[in-house]
Write the structure tokens for this entry.
Amino acid sequence: PAEVVPQAPEDPLFGLMRAYKADPSPNKVDLGIGAYRDDNAKPWVLPVVKKADEIVRNDPEANHEYLPIAGLASLTSKAAELVFGASSPALAEKRVASVQAISGTGALHLGALFLAKFYKIAGANRTVYLSNPTWANHHQIFTNVGLPIASYPYFDKSTRGLDFEGMKATLRDAPDGSIVVLHACAHNPTGVDPSPEQWAELAQLLKEKRHFPFFDTAYQGFASGDLDRDASSIRLFVEAGFELVVAQSFAKNFGLYGQRAGCFHYVAAPAPSAAETTTRVASQLAILQRSEISNPPIYGAKIASIVLNDPALFAEWQDNLRTMSGRIIDMRKQLRSKLEELGTPGTWNHITDQIGMFSFTGLTEPQVLKLREEYHIYMTKNGRISMAGLNSRNVEYVAKAVDKVVRE
Ligand code: PMP
């Protein structure tokens, strides 16, 4: 096949990271990074993860055997409780099939593969609707398994908030039974989430249209600092009786990025036969998993499982989550107030209105390039900044640089 393989472009985000690394300026700031950084711009190993890691390493029974195909059961059961709530009727009624996956990306892929193979209900459309914009990898993940993709409006450039009317109109016009990918909280890249009332309206609309919700939850506990609140969109849809799926990542909220810990969950709609449906689905997920990865990785899964199963460690984890989300919220406040103090043209309330790790600044591509070339500040071309890249030492420098390029 050598002659027919074309050169593929470099992943834009990883290209940006490379350019940042190669920049010798002492003032350089990395606002492209999709991982949490502490106030010293360093990766943060959560203290609770350090403790759990100690427990894993000191376990005299520990070995490097394979996990079961569906993964570590002590992880997947608690992971399901984390998303759906421990008292969820869906769990009590055995309507949830949970499979450990290769972090959020692997969970999305497993879900996409499952739908590509089985979402063939008479009259239903197989098109996957993605928000515009969305996490860039969504396009490839669904396209790779042969599902057609389309997009629904999401970000309103003029308000730098949600284009709710546009979103609803497109989902209403979409063929019945379409697959709709929804970010459970802390939408990447915009930092804009629907309000609880808007989520309720969306649930009603998707129900009427018989659309199939595919939730992506990569930031639970990271957005508001409250695990339950960050899962409320998914829980609302489960309560509304949807059949749906969830791709869950532990990369950000445990800081387990490279360990690739995550889960895929299938929820059957409430019906007398729902438990039996779920068993059938689980059997098919096991077959797909077997051919893809045989069995998921063990180390990060053990760490997450220890924390989720121990009430004291769980409480400490919540505390660690509040540290991360709190620092990010603080950086939002500081950036906004510095821009307002400088009288930077435009409005900056969206910086604090948006939530989660990212903010869509509204900076244009020429402004983004100028920030990179003249000020050594790196962000994606669409003007997305990672709030975790800001800290008490660089936030003023960034605000002043933004001020300069906006005024030019
Ligand atoms: N979904 C979204 C929206 C994300 O932002 C990310 C992380 N960048 C993921 C899924 C999955 O990441 P991972 O595979 O590292 O869990």
Summary: The CA atoms of residues 367 and 405 lie 6 Å apart. The pocket of 4'-deoxy-4'-aminopyridoxal-5'-phosphate is lined by residues 34, 103-105, 135, 183, 188, 216, 218, 249, 251, 257, 262 (CB under 6 Å). The chain has a mean pLDDT of 96. The chain is about 45% helix and 15% strand.
